[in-house]
Amino acid sequence: MHEIARRIFSPRGRALIFAVVLAAVTIFAYRPAWHGGFLWDDDAYIINNELLTAPHGWQRIWFSLDSPSQYFPLTYSTFRIEHALWGLNTTGYHWVNLLLHVGNALLLWAVLARLGVPGSWLAAAIFALHPVQVESVAWITERKNVLMAFDFLCAGALGESNRLHAPGCIVLDSLVAEKADHDAPSYANCSFCRPRRWNGVSRSLVGTLPPGNEP
Fold it and tell me: Which of 16, 68, 86, 159 could be bridged to 191 by S-S, CB 3.0 to 4.6 A?
């Protein structure tokens, strides 16, 4: 029992607990979207999008301009995979958006912690629960936003372990997911220039927990 308690209250254990709390609260907050329907131009992006069902759909997604709006090949690729898995059942699409958003909140916490920002867990919680995020999470077509954010934050989270390759590769990925992500190259450049001064993600995360939760 003492060993279990020691593990729970260790820096890594505390970070895991707060990560689970952040994920659970975010998922519950978006409960109305779990089984939501299609909205606005979801019909053009998913219901009537022949790129998701055509025999040469993959080729057209990546190497043509046949998309319903703009060139978002990574976004359309996720839609094509999901269409093959659950067809037009909206629940699957909504859950993918929601889980990407949860991942974004956790990644933001990790990135802010590595930058030494005080209260980074609280900042990530505000990011996850702020009403401005509802459109990107609950509207299936806005997959490009949560997907871009995921790639963008991965560039920061992985930049510490591979400063020359991971950020650049993931920034290119983010540009393919959402062409409006003009800040990604600058963000990656910051990760190249930052000095190494971290002894592990869990220690950084615990150091930025709300007051009264320090080890």
Answer: 159
Residue 214 in domain: no
Give the residue numbers spanning the domain of 98.
2-206
What distance in Å separates the CA atoms of residue 179 and residue 174, rounded to the nearest whole number? 8
Helices (H), ranges, 64-200: 73-86, 90-114, 120-129, 134-138, 143-159, 166-177, 184-193
Q: Rounded distance, CA 116 to CA 41, Å?
A: 41
In a domain, 212, yes or no: no
Q: Is residue 15 part of a domain?
A: yes
End-to-end CA distance of the chain: give it in Å, rounded. Answer: 19
Per the CB < 8 A criterion, the answer to whether 34 and 19 are in contact is: no
Dist CA 190 CA 175 (whole Å): 17
Give me the number of domains the chain comprises: 1
Number of neighbours of residue 3 by Cβ within 10 angstroms: 7
For residue range 123-172, what is the model confidence (pLDDT) as tens digits? 999 999 999 898 889 888 888 888 888 887 877 776 655 554 555 555 55
Residue found under tokens 């997907």: 147
- CA separation (Å) from 8 to 12, 184, 191, 209? 8, 37, 32, 15
Give dist(CA 215, CA 205) in Å, integer: 11
